[in-house]
Amino acid sequence: MEETKKSLLDDSFTSAMTLTNSGVPQVPDRYVLPPSQRPALGSSLGTTETTLPVIDLSLLNQPLLRSRAIHEISMACKEFGFFQVINHGIPSSVVKDAFDAATQFFDLPVEEKMLLVSANVHEPVRYGTSLNHSTDGVHYWRDFIKHYSHPLSKWINMWPSNPPCYKDKVGKYAEATHVLHKQLIEAISESLGLEKNYLKEEIEEGSQVMAVNCYPACPEPEIALGMPPHSDFSSLTILLQSSQGLQIMDCNKNWVCVPYIEGALIVQLGDQVEVMSNGIYKSVIHRVTVNKDVKRLSFASLHSLPLHKKISPAPKLVNANNTPAYGEFSFNDFLDYISSNDFIQERFIDTIKKSSS
Ligand code: OGA
Ligand code: NI
């Protein structure tokens, strides 16, 4: 790890925050995307107006209405692999505190943040910029701190000690998200016709990676991105955003802007659910645009089975007509893949698809 830190420093690590704060009038060349990958902001080209699903999660706790909510979730998962949730039970004060701690963290002097820098994707806590500063061809206008978050007591001591409120405030949000994720996974299992408690133990002991992302104002948002198109390895990702910027790809391969809804959280299906459902549900491809005026913060909480636990298609969803369409994989397999492959060129999930189906 010392090696990695040193080489990053030698490589003159520059965060997006540093560039924005220094007032650069243009993005450095390494951020400029090839024309075909640019986000076409401000034109209707390539982006579509679609109404994306918003689900009232309080229905899940009402015996007479639960099946309606499950049906809505099933429709959203089939059509988009994506939905927003309201009445999700996480208090707005917990959300506000988490944003407050993240704002303070990214505003720290760069030397302080560099204490946690690493290019090693296996590190349980790491600060960085772009996707991986040391290997990215094109760079992305994003800084991040990622930390393992479940069980909280195992990891929290490794989290940033500055700002002093960080552990407490982000810890409370992480715990609340873990509870919410269990409810969502139960509902998603039910919507697939599986037992509500399918994989219960593995989910309870599962891994949670909290990616706290900071996308500072960018001088040339039409030629750069905050994150490239990708799907998450997780079973599902719960995303909290401070303003609009996320786009998802719909089934016609059009980019759709995800509206900002005050108080709502975004739920995205990841590769583990695609495999578990044997492809009935697909992980959603998404990307992040940046903008000239405001800094955008997001918390992406990626939930999955434990690091080394393999996920495979649920036996109940496999039969003579529906043979397994995927091999098995673990979170650790995904980390190994991204440390030696360019996951923008080939999606990880494509490498475990069985070719016969
Ligand atoms: C991610 C991600 C989206 C966002 O961290 O994997 O897709 O809006 N984030 O920050
Ligand atoms: Ni993502």
Description:
- With 357 residues, this protein is of the alpha+beta class.
- The protein is built from eleven helices and 13 strands.
- The strands form two sheets. The chain has an eight-stranded mixed β-sheet. A five-stranded mixed β-sheet has the order 1-10-9-12-7, with no helix packed on it.
- Helix 3 packs across helix 7 (166-191) and helix 4 (92-106) crosses helix 7 (166-191).
- The longest helix has 26 residues, at 166-191.
- The model is unreliable at 1-10 (pLDDT under 50).
Topology:
Blueprint: H1 2-10, H2 16-21, E1 47-48, E2 54-56, H3 66-79, E3 82-86, H4 92-106, H5 110-114, E4 125-129, E5 143-148, H6 152-155, H7 166-191, H8 200-204, E6 207-215, E7 227-230, E8 236-241, E9 246-249, E10 255-257, E11 265-269, H9 271-276, E12 286-288, E13 296-304, H10 331-340, H11 348-351
Parallel strand pairs: 1-10, 2-3
Antiparallel strand pairs: 3-11, 4-5, 5-6, 6-13, 7-12, 8-11, 8-13, 9-10, 9-12
The structure holds N-oxalylglycine (OGA) and nickel (II) ion (NI).
N-oxalylglycine is lined by residues 211, 213, 227, 232, 239, 241, 245-246, 286, 288, 298, 300.
Mean pLDDT: 93
Q: Which spans have pLDDT < 50 for at least 5 consecutive residues? A: 1-10
Task: Write down how many β-strands occur, each being a DSSP E stretch of 2 or more residues.
Answer: 13
Which compounds are bound in this model?
N-oxalylglycine, nickel (II) ion
| Morphology | globular
What is the CA-CA span between the terminal residues? 42 Å
How many helices?
11
Reading side by side through the largest sheet, how are the strands ordered?
Answer: 2-3-11-8-13-6-5-4
Query: What quaternary form is this?
Result: single chain
Sheet of most strands? 8 strands, mixed
Order of helices and strands: HHEEHEHHEEHHHEEEEEEHEEHH
Look at the helices and sheets and give the structural class.
alpha+beta
Strand percent estimate: 15-25%
Approximate helicity band: 25-40%
Backbone CA Rg: 20 Å
